[in-house]
């Protein structure tokens, strides 16, 4: 990265041309997006707001910034031309910090007139210093008077230092944009008191998503710290197979109490999975794959797999069964790959493209058998059928991998992140 380790004042890059990898100008720098961070860490510089020639403003993440000098900013990679929209946890330096008035020692007041940023690690930047101009007591300068200036550390500016409540609010706002694994890493890294405050403010679905990505012992500790009514609500939002795995780790009395508090349908799905050993197809499967009757059309099938709640693995295949269509279903007939659905007219019935040669897994199929099955057929999801030829669920490849890795793999992943960007520093999108 061809930038010096010295700080760059943001006023000096305002309006600079932004050049792509071929040397063509794509626009000009209009602002810098920063994100306040916790634990006394300097605000992170997330990226630049670049104004295109059509006067549309877009966001360019800092990892795309290849070089900054006195005459231009060079970027690399593709430019996302969607219109820039500021998120709740972000601050625009020029629009929101420049000219802001702050209080200084001895009842003096000053205005921010510049902010510097500096590179830290490869392609990461953070706020370094803030330039201040002292204001006169009456708020007005005499002719020719400009006021004394000073450059101070970012930590001396109240607006850049989070208070205890602001830290919690800020973390919750950040998590709204995070992937579940990143949310889990944030919770893993928090002090117990902070974690309890954040968990209290997260909605049940967010907490369930993060819980599924935590190490098993932390899942148990977090769930048992909740009151039982909320714990049951969170379990309802989890995937049934993940909820079943977690309930197995709870004291029997608590597990039964939570199952009693859950909605009957959700509890029934979980109870149905508790009868299987962990390292079997039944112990790994979800009871909620996409199931259709043979007279369903391609249009209906595609509408089902478009559901944003489905994982990519579950959306890759539909299972064709006789009614009832809830697991355990009527007689299992076969499968249809989503890729095949995309090649057929919308009005065609799925029964006409059935793949009935694929031998399904059985609930008691062992882990080694399941893994060989996936490798043999190059699948990302597989049907699980009982002795009555009823579909009871489907094993997705991500659940298979979870069970093939060492038991403490999530904990090791959380603890081995020193060389990776902090999870709250995930790039936009």
From TrEMBL:
Lineage, opening ranks: Bacteria, Bacillati, Actinomycetota, Actinomycetes, Propionibacteriales
The protein, known as: Mg/Co/Ni transporter MgtE
Molecular function via GO: magnesium ion transmembrane transporter activity
Family matches, as InterPro entries: CBS_dom (IPR000644), CBS_dom_sf (IPR046342), Mg_transptr_MgtE_intracell_dom (IPR006668), MgtE_N_sf (IPR038076), MgtE_transporter (IPR006669), PRC-brl_dom (IPR027275), PRC_barrel-like_sf (IPR011033), SH3_actinomycetes (IPR058838)
GO cellular component: membrane
Domain of life: Bacteria
Region Disordered, residue ranges: 407-429
SMART domains: MgtE_N
Organism: Luteococcus japonicus
Keyword Glycosyltransferase part of the UniProt annotation: no
All copies of domain CBS, residue ranges: 285-358
Cited PROSITE patterns: CBS
Pfam families: CBS (PF00571), MgtE_N (PF03448), PRC (PF05239), SH3_actinomycetes (PF26205)
Keyword Lipid metabolism: no
Record key words, sorted: CBS domain
């Amino acid at each position: 990265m061809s930038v010096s380790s010295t700080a760059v004042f943001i006023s000096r890059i305002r309006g600079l041309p932004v050049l792509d990898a071929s040397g063509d100008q794509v626009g000009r720098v209009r602002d810098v997006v920063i994100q306040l961070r916790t634990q006394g860490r300097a605000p992170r510089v997330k990226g630049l707001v670049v104004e295109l020639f059509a006067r549309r403003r877009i966001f360019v993440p800092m990892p795309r910034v290849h070089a900054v000098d006195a005459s231009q900013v060079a970027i690399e990679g593709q430019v996302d031309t969607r219109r820039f929209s500021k998120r709740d946890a972000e601050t625009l330096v020029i629009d929101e910090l420049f000219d802001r008035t702050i209080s200084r020692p001895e009842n003096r007041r000053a205005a921010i007139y510049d902010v510097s940023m500096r590179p830290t690690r490869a392609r990461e930047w953070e706020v370094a210093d803030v330039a201040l101009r002292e204001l006169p007591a009456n708020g007005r300068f005499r002719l020719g008077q400009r006021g004394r200036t000073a450059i101070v550390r970012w930590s001396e500016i109240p607006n850049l230092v989070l208070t205890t409540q602001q830290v919690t609010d800020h973390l919750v706002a950040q998590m709204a944009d995070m992937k579940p694994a990143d949310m889990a890493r944030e919770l893993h890294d928090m002090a117990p008191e902070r974690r309890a405050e954040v968990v209290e403010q997260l909605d049940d679905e967010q907490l369930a998503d993060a819980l599924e990505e935590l190490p098993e012992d932390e899942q148990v500790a977090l769930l048992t710290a909740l009151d039982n009514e909320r714990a049951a609500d969170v379990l309802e939002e989890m995937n049934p197979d993940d909820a079943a795995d977690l309930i197995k780790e709870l004291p029997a009395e608590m597990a039964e109490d939570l199952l009693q508090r859950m909605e009957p349908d959700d509890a029934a799905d979980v109870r149905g999975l508790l009868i299987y050993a962990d390292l079997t197809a039944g112990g790994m499967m979800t009871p909620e794959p996409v199931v259709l009757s043979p007279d369903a059309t391609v249009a209906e099938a595609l509408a089902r797999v478009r559901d944003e709640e489905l994982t990519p693995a579950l959306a890759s295949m539909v299972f064709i069964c006789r009614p009832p269509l809830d697991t355990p279903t009527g007689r299992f007939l076969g499968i249809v790959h989503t890729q095949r659905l995309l090649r057929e007219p919308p009005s065609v019935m799925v029964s006409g493209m059935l793949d009935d040669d694929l031998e399904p897994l059985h609930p008691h199929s062992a882990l080694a058998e399941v893994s060989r099955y996936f490798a043999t057929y190059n699948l990302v999801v597989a049907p699980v059928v009982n002795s009555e030829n009823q579909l009871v669920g489907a094993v997705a490849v991500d659940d298979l991998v979870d069970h093939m890795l060492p038991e403490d793999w999530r904990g090791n992943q959380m603890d081995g992140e020193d060389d990776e960007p902090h999870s709250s520093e995930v790039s936009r999108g």
